Amino acid sequence: ETGVTQSPTHLIKTRGQQVTLRCSSQSGHNTVSWYQQALGQGPQFIFQYYREEENGRGNFPPRFSGLQFPNYSSELNVNALELDDSALYLCASSPLGAGAQETQYFGPGTRLLVL
Amino acid sequence: GDSVTQMEGPVTLSEEAFLTINCTYTATGYPSLFWYVQYPGEGLQLLLKATKADDKGSNKGFEATYRKETTSFHLEKGSVQVSDSAVYFCALDSSNTGKLIFGQGTTLQVKP
């Protein structure tokens, strides 16, 4: 049990719509990262937030955006959904500062289907 | 750019067989290396990690050694169990910032 929760667990949207996915990190974890995992593939880094500021971004367009809140929760927003956005979205949190020495704790993910 | 390549699956073994899942990487500098496991319907769990060359990570009978000369981090277990059936991901962090680059995953199926 990692203590990282995500909601909703499943979601169906249509192309062009907007979606907000939520993550609740463990208390004291002030770094959160979001990943996209397409079916049969490894997770791909979307972006990371540290103390409510974006702290690095992967190769994803600006319609993927995020927020981190002081209560250790965060959001991933995706605008103008495309069929290829269908995937499992994972958030991962880690304590203290960002760094490879800190273990990242992953949530169970939100499975998004875009029709 | 940095990348991770894993052996293709699925890997099907009988219980108590020896497991090797190959992982090689390309990275600038000296990355930290990880193995994550994903059980059906669950998120990723860190299995083991190594942060410098020749380090051996180990956990739950699994182990992997950071080989800089061959840029590899192969996962091994001497005797697998049915409960080890899962998808295994090799990953690296080249910038020491927690931004992970994953391989495509290898599905392990262990039969009784």
Keyword list:
heterodimer; A: 115 residues; mainly beta; seven-stranded mixed β-sheet; four-stranded antiparallel β-sheet; B: 112 residues; six-stranded mixed β-sheet; globular
What does this structure look like?
The complex is a heterodimer of chains A (115) and B (112). Chain A is globular, with a radius of gyration of 13 Å. Chain A contains no helices and eleven strands. The termini of chain A are far apart. Chain A has strands at 5-7, 10-13, 19-24, 31-37, 44-50, 53-57, 64-68, 73-78, 87-94, 105-106, 110-114. In chain A, the strands form two sheets. In chain A, strands 2, 4, 5, 6, 9, 10 and 11 form a seven-stranded mixed β-sheet that branches. In chain A, strands 1-3-8-7 form a four-stranded antiparallel β-sheet, with no helix packed on it. With 112 residues, chain B is mainly beta. Chain B has no helices and twelve strands. In chain B, the strands form three sheets. In chain B, strands 2, 5, 6, 10, 11 and 12 form a six-stranded mixed β-sheet that branches. Chain B has a four-stranded antiparallel β-sheet with strand order 3-9-8-7, with no helix packed on it. Chain B has a two-stranded antiparallel sheet with strand order 1-4. Chain B is globular. The termini of chain B are far apart. The model of chain B has no long low-confidence stretch (mean pLDDT 93). The A-B interface holds A 2, 4, 31, 33, 35, 40-45, 48, 55-56, 58, 90, 92, 94, 98-104, 106-109 and B 4, 31-32, 36, 41-46, 49, 51, 89, 91, 93, 96-105.
